[in-house]
Each structure stands twice: as C-alpha cells, then as structure tokens.
Amino acid sequence: MKVRFWLLDVNYEVKEHTPEILLWGIDDSGNRVLVVDRNFLAYFYAVIEDKADPTKVVEEIEAERTQYAFITKLEVVERKFFGKPVKTVKVYCRDPNFVSKYAKDFRKFEGVKDCLEDDLRYSMRYLIDNNVVPCGWHEIEVTEKASTSGVHVDKVYTAKSLPKFIEKVEVPQLRILGFSMICYSKEGSPKPDRNSIVIISVATNQGEEKQFLAQDQNDKPVLEAFLKYIQSFDPDLIIGYDVNRQDWPYLNERFKKLRLKLSVNRAETEPHRSVYGHFSTTGRANIDLFDFADEFPEVKVRTLENLADYLGVMKIEDRILIEEVDFANYWEDKEKREILKKFSMDNTRCIIGITDAILDFAMQLSNLVSLPLDHVGTAAVGFRVEWFLIKHAQKIGELVPKRVEKPYRPYAGAIVLSPEPGLHENIAVMDFKSMYPNIMMAYNLSPDTYVSSNEPIPPCGVYEAPEVKHKFRKEPPGFYKEVLSYLIKVRDEIRSKMKNFAPESVEYHVSDARQKAVKVITNASYGYAGWIGARWYKKPVAEAATAWGRHTILTTIKIAEEAGLRVVYSDTDSLFIRHDSEKIEKLSRKIEEKLGLEIKPDKIYVRIFFTEAKKRYAGLLPDGRLDIVGLEVVRGDWATVAKKVQEKVLEIILKEQSPKKAAKFVQQFIYDLWQRRVPYRDLIIWKTLTKPVEDYAIRASHVEAAKMLKEKGWRLAVGDKVGYVVVVGSGRLYERVKPYVFASYSEIDIEYYVSKQVVPVAVRVLESFGITEEQLLKSRMKERETRRLTDFFGS
DNA sequence: GCATGAAAAATACCC
DNA sequence: ACGGGTATTTTTCATGCG
C-alpha cells in the first residue's frame, strides 16, 4: 500500500548493528504516522590518490575484511572534489555508528588520500540522499504493522520503497501546544533539585487554555497533570520560549528528582539534548521561539514580552510583569497569586501568538535547507547555509569537504565614504541588490573555480579580481554560482506567483515565508564563504568578492559624478545622491551595461541629516516617518531617556528645521529629568554579557551589576542582557551602578543621565547647528538654581 | 602622586 | 560558530611633571 505523509521529525536507532530510520509524520487523512525504513545503508568515501588504483584499495580493504565486519559493499565510483574528478571507493557500512571509526582507519591505507563524508549523521544522510525533506510531503510504498506498541501514533508502517518527494505546499492541520512554567524559589533562581514547578500554563492552537497548579509547593500533581495533558492532546509541535536553555533541562532534572518519567515523546524515550543544542522530543517537534528572536533585530532585549509586544501579540502596557525572583512572594500571597497565574497564562498566550508569526518561516527554512524543524532554529546561520550546500553537493556528485580548523586571517572588506555632514534635501539612495551574491555569480567566485597563482591559466580564461588579483576560471559555472543562481531564480518565481494570490490567503503567507527563507540563505552565502568554520571556506573567494565590490561601487561613484550627480554618502553597495529621476535612470543603465550588475533607486529622503561619522544618519521619508540609522536611537545600549530625546531632536530638525526649538526641548527635558518626572524604566541601561563574568579583563558596569545579581542567586548566562541604573556615589562608573531591580528612584544619579546620556546624544545632532553642550546645560543650571531656591523657601 | 592622553576593551551597530 | 568596517564610551596603562 501507499502512504502520503508530511515529515515532522526524523531520527534513527541501531538495533543489533542494524539501523532503522524513523520518519514521524502526518498522513493526508490526518493520522499521525511512523514509517520505519530499514532499506538505507550508511556509507562514506575513501578518496583514492591520483596515481593509485582504486581496485587495489578495494583489495586492501577486502584483505582485512574480518576486522571490518559491518562493511557490506565496496564500490569504485567517480566523484568530484572541489570541482575536480576523483576516484573513490564508496564504503557501505551496516552499522552507521562504525562509519567514522572505519574511515579513520582507512585514511592510513595505502593509496587512500583521505576519507570523506563519514562525518554526516546517518539520519541527515538519509534525508539528503533520498530527497526527503522536513516539512514536505512524500509518498511511500509500505506495509502496515499490526501493532503500534511502544510508539504514540495512529499507524506504524514499514517502508517497502524509498519515499518520493511530492510537490505540495499545504501544511496539514497541526496540533500545537504552547507552554510556560513558573518555579518557586525563595532565594534566587530556582534549582530543579530543590525548587518545585508551581504553575504550568498551556494553550493550544485550538483555543484551549489550561493551568496546572501545585498545592503549596508539592508539584508532583502539576507534573503528572501536565504529562497527562500532553499525552491526551498529543501535540505535533511543543513550543516555548528559551526552553532549550531553561524549561527542558529543568523539567528533565525535576522529573528525575521526583522519580517520574518525562513521557512526552511519541517514542518511549525522554527529551534529550541533541545537535546544535536543541531538545528533541522524538516524534514531535520541540520549537524554541527564542531561536527565532534574532530575526527581529529591532527587539533589543529579547524577552518573551518584548517580542510579543513588537509583533503585536500582546502589548507590554497591558501586562503586569513579574521578575523571577519575586515568584515565591507572589505565590505565597493569596491575592498576588492570582496575578502570578495571569502572568504565567499570558506568557503562554504570547508563545501561541508569536508562533503564529514565526512558524511559516521556520517550516520553510527547515524545508529549504533540510534540517528538521526542531533543529533548524538552533542551527547557526552558517550551518543552515551549509546544509543547503550539502544537499546541492549530493545532487551533483560533489564530495562534502571535512570541517577542518583553519587560522583566522582577516581580509579587506567594503568601502564606506565619509558623509557630507549637515542637512541635505531630496536625496535618493541607490543600491545594488544582493551585491555579493551577484558578484559571486558574475565572476564565478567559488572554491572549485579558484585558480591559484602557481596553476596555469585554463583555456576558458579567468576573471581576475582587482587589487587582490585572485583568479577564477570562467567556465564551467562554479558550485556557488550554481547554488546562487538557483536560489535567485526560485525567489523570483515565488515572488511572481505571489502576485496571483490574495494577500490574506494561505498560499500567499506560505509563499512569502518561502521567499524570505530563500532570501536569508542567499544573503548569508557571502558571509558563509568567508567563515573559517565553513566546509567550503576559501579565503580568496571572500576576498575577491569584497574586492569586486569595492571596484563596483567606486566605478559607480565615478560614473555618477561624471554625470553630474554628487555623491553625499556611500556604504558598501549604496550611494546617496540628489534625486534626479532622469540622471538616475541613465546611471542605472550605464552601470548595468558596464558592470553587468543591477543598481536601482531604493529610498528617497525628503531631507536627510548626517553627522561627521559614517554609518549614522537620519532621514525624513515622504510619508513623514523618520528613518534613523546607526544613531543612539536605534541602539540597545543607551538609556531610553537618551534615545527619546535624540529621536525628538531629530524629528524637530528634520521636520521643522528649527535647532532652536530642538534645544529648547532638550532643556525642558533635562529639567523634567531633574524633577524625576520621567519613568524609572527609561533610566535602565541594557548591555549583553558576551562572556562569563570572570573572564572580563576590565571592570565594566554591566558586569558589576551582573555580579550583584548572581550574588542574590540570579542565573545569568552568556548572551543575557543585564539591565542596570547609575546611582549616586563616588569613584568609577562601575562602582556606582546597580541592577535596576535592586535600586530605587531616589538613589538615581540624575547628573549622570544628564551629562553622559541625554546631553551627548542631543549634542551629537545639534552641534551641526552650532549648539553646544553648555547651551543645553545653561538653562538647566538656572532651573537647578531656582529649584534649590524654591526647595529652600517654598514656592 | 597625579593629571593627561593614548591604547585597549567592550558593545552594538551598518551593509 | 556567517563577513569586514565603524562609532562610541569607559577602563587601563604609560608618560611626564614636579
């Protein structure tokens, strides 16, 4: 019989040295199914030395066959390695767990240059080789198993054929469960061996909400009820926020401590940490929304509530937020417990809401790069790109290079021009779309087309990069070129198809998520090429890409200026020029003709303001919005007071062109600040812990604040943001900071916020108009004086 | 011993 | 654990002065 299924999760088991692939999915009638495939053999390649005879190597292996009991087959096959044909012996191995061990041995065999592809996981090997794609549909010939014992699915099948991919975009009706939990701890962050889980809030995509509550601090009933709920709802996706770092390890430990089995998987296993640090709940996809938070760089402090607020899921103003260290107090107080319960439920509601905004993209990304849905999020961008490349390599018979450690060698990047400071009217921004990918295609930059300086020039000729003089053969199209052309073609196709869909339709949403995923991978390709951790790293490729980039933009600037277009600013692939449609059109055509790359007008600013600095400016768009780039307004490490002031100053400057009014505003603001009329939370400064607290070479404010938090039992990890305020006192700045949760408004050092936050960012803009720090502070002095007098005499 | 300025460390941005 | 280029603040260190 035939089964059609949508692939949700994949794993493998080895029983008696024989592997089976477990494909967990949903069939087209909505059954949860497991297809067990025992038909696929693991293998690796022994690459043969140029002058050696592969049959000799085969004989060599055969001679020692008894030591390599799991080898089932040896095949002499031709493959390519960095574009060059190589002879290999494909070594099939019954037990996948022996692949890397055998490969290690065979590297020492005579005539064997190296062994490759022994470092690919068996389950990934299966997907890649058979074009089986996560979040995609497949058809397969199977026999049904009578029993489903040991697994929690509707049907279990044994594969009779390999799955065949079916082009079908729709996603089956998934059961999605979101959860969040509250742990009780009187001192500091909760520890699973001591502190119970007092609330677990769950919600589903079918609109059901439930809360499991401990009796006092006995959480056994909570955990049991939670398990029972999961088992009965039987979700396909289990979703949470920061669950890979927090909830799952905690649940694991807590269940162990209480001698309970964390039975949430569809197999009889328990959740465990796996590749790229994700937690696997076999048969279901566990998704951590935190892993997708960096898709939204506007959200500076990536907390659940901030992300939900940004995505319009739940506004922060409508919430009462509770710090982890206060959970115990809230739990113990009868009235406050209700607030805590609401807080927890709202967290889960946020999770469900954010899922809505992210899931399509996550599924498309998973589908595109072939990484299962539960680990596509935890895989770093480089690995996402790499899996996409591996998939393509398999298709064209290109061997996958080993990951080898390489030394870091910096190389020159892009050109940034100093802007003409001050205000400019009617400025158009022209830029090259996807400049690096297009350059890589145009000049066939690829690890396999690189011609090193000691190699002869091939008959087809070479492209030679300016400045760095790296050479790349013109023919045939390189690995990167093939991949990038495909990606760009696919994205264009999707985008033109989208025009026929209603923007509210499912097809539109799915297509949009798809084209975004394609775009992300395309744009990451240059970065990948220059990443020393990349399997396909070749420094000259990245170096040539930036060299051509510099040449491209410099040529463009020259041509623009020759055409009478003054360039007021340029960064990497863009130029800012006076808006003149005719000349711009002409320029576009000329560049395309001369360089074969497309440059188009993008934004038009009614007015734009530059400081003296590069990468920092603010423009007024025709619709009245401000576009602020690089300035403190868009930075996450300045107090909100400073950001608000600077934004307002920019608005006044750009819209009303009145520096005087802007200065007045700043003076008034400073006065209000002295009066403590601004919200306390606007004084918090957030900074990221980029390494363990002990590793810092210098004493920094946020690190000192982090130490204080840790002392009180807070759990802080690398990558966490620490929020602190500056309080009155003496000595260095780092001696005058406190975590914002530990300080009160009365001890705030207003002087610091005025002189080191508000004034500098205002001056940054206003100094262009002749306004000085002193002028901004002058009236403050007056106000302070009057304030002191009124305080003294009364008003 | 201390003021001063350069260098180093740290962070977060732009494209 | 994708690249290099850049601005900015604060700490740290070296230096010169007296």
Provide structural commentary.
Helix 11 (435-442) packs across helix 14, helix 12 (479-498) packs antiparallel against helix 13 and helix 16 (640-656) packs antiparallel against helix 17. The strands form seven sheets. The chain has a six-stranded antiparallel sheet with strand order 22-23-18-24-25-26. A five-stranded mixed barrel has the order 1-2-3-9-8. Strands 13-12-11-14-17 form a five-stranded mixed sheet. Mean pLDDT is 95; it is low at 786-795. It contains 20 helices and 29 strands. It is of the alpha+beta class and 795 residues long. The termini are far apart. Helix content is 37%, strand content 22%. Strand 25 (617-620) and strand 26 (626-629) form a beta hairpin. The chain binds a DNA duplex (15 and 18 nucleotides) through residues 297, 300, 380-386, 410-416, 431, 435-436, 524-534, 542, 545-546, 571-574, 611, 613-616, 629-632, 634-637, 687-688, 690, 696-702, 732-734, 756, 760.
In short:
The protein is an alpha+beta fold.
What's the number of helices?
Answer: 20
For the terminal residues, how far apart are their CA atoms?
A: 91 Å
Tally of DSSP β-strands: 29
Rounded radius of gyration (Å) = 30 Å
Overall pLDDT confidence:
95
Morphology: globular
Instruction: State the share of residues found in helices, binned by percent.
Output: 25-40%
Strand content: 15-25%
Main pleated sheet: 6 strands, antiparallel
- The residue ranges in which pLDDT falls below 50 over 5 or more consecutive positions are 786-795
